[in-house]
Amino acid sequence: MPNTDKDTKTSSRRRFLRGAGVAGIGAAAGTLAFPQVSRAQTVTLKMQGSWTASDIFSEMAQDYAKRVNDMAGGRLKIDYLVGGAVVHPFSVQDAVHAGVLDAAHTVTVYWYGKHKAASLFGTGPVFGFDAHAGLGWIYNGGGKELFTELLDNILKLNIVSFFAMPMPTQPLGWFKKPVKSMADLRGLKYRTVGLAADLMQAMGLAVAQLPGGEIVPAMERGVIDAFEFNNPTSDRRFGAHNVAKNYVMGSYHQATEYFEIMFNKTKFNSLPAEHKAILQYAAEAASSANFWKAQDIYSRDLQDLKDKERVSVLRCPKDVFETQIKAWDGLITQLGADPFMKKVMDSQKAWTKRVTYYEMFNAADYRTAYEHHFGKLDL
After folding, report:
1. Per-residue pLDDT tens digits for 69-119
2. What phi-psi label fits residue 171: left (phi over 0), alpha (psi between -120 and 50 degrees) or beta?
3. Burial 25-37 (b: 16+ CB within 10 A, else e)
4. Is residue 75 one of the residues assigned to a domain?
5. Does 14 score more than 60 pLDDT?
6. Which residue of 25, 102, 135, 210 lies most exposed, with the fewest beta carbons within 10 A?
7. Would you call 77 helix, strand, or coil by DSSP?
8. Helical ranges in 141-272 per DSSP H
9. How many Å apart are CA 152 and CA 97, to the nearest integer?
10. Average pLDDT, stretch 147-151?
């Protein structure tokens, strides 16, 4: 019996339904195969640094922003502003807490006036760990949890932070005359920040705490006699060699430090999970990239300061190191009267005793190898 129009329509309908069923299964499989990705509109975070435009630290902050922007694929963006663009370099934490800024790139010593424990997460007593081991303590030894306790429970700040960049030991700094012994330091008006200010005061220096951009003008006006900032590159770029010609390397005043990359917590918590992860993991990525950049540029600029700028580069005298470590002993006792600070320092000591023991006991004798190839170091 021939097909009627009705039979043809019924058959076509069945074929369509079968096809739709197969397509539905394929679509479901596609859903299972590919993770869900946020399709929200682009979120732009306004971040200010504590650094001048010419400082290598601004470049390092931009390294972080670039990693966030590249990984976010246009859905999350950091707009980086140099120090002073919105607020004073020392005031970025207040601005982030209040929501005036979404984020900041800074160091904890710039706000240690709120609680001296802040400096323990940057430049604190020297127990024997370097900045690499210090970041290990923050991320794996309980430091992150203690820092959160400081922000959330003690200071009640609307901030969440990540740490990056294991900074090399900071030089003792720049002096108009050579520093041959501790006697050459006493009575000087000296710029530093954080607990290093307490340390230097205990050693008999008068201390001024200034951001990097204000150091050279203060030196030119005689407000200070000597100063430290951080590294040969930053120092050279803001003209340290134009106001002093003696650069003393090595010190216990700031043997470790790291960048604090902070966000307004309300803003951070409003972001989707993948954006939060990008902000966190970009800090870890930038940490390595910043240090590798520092190895190259800091060493080049130190040589240029010697060869091109005719700077006398000296090693910190042994009796200065000895005076510093004794002064730290006194400060540790004073600071330990605060239960939270004692808890932080005890945590650092426990980490250092185990981790630094392993590192020092196992380390190769790199100095012997260096001197074998390049001659004896005058240290």
Report:
1. 999 999 999 999 999 999 999 999 999 999 999 999 999 999 999 999 999
2. beta
3. eeeeeeeeeeeee
4. yes
5. no
6. 25
7. strand
8. 143-148, 195-202, 215-221, 232-237, 265-269
9. 12
10. 98
CA 267 vs CA 35, 262, 272: distances in Å: 24, 11, 11
- Of 55, 63, 84, the C-alpha closest to 237 is 55
Q: Which residue has the tokens 């604090």?
A: 260
- Rounded Cα distance, 11 and 5, in Å: 10
How far apart are the two ends of the chain, measured CA to CA in Å?
108
Token pair, residue 275, equals: 């954006």
Distances (CA, A) of 165 to 131, 269, 283, 291: 8, 24, 9, 6
Alpha carbon 225 to chain centroid, angstroms: 28
Q: Which pLDDT tens digit goes with each residue over 186-234?
A: 999 999 999 999 999 999 999 999 988 899 999 999 999 999 999 999 9
CATH of the domain at 147: 3.40.190.170
C-alpha dihedral sign at 134, 303, 110, 244? positive
Residue-number span of the structural domain to which 261 is assigned? 43-166+257-295
Where b means 16+ CB within 10 Å and e means fewer, 266-285 reads ebbeebbebbbebbeebbeb
Q: Is residue 62 part of a domain?
A: yes
Position 266 in a domain = yes
Residues pairing with 260 in the sheet: 106, 163
* Domains in the chain, number: 1
- Structural domain contains residue 353: no
| Strand ranges (E), the chain | 43-49, 76-81, 103-106, 159-164, 173-175, 189-191, 206-208, 226-227, 246-249, 259-264, 312-315
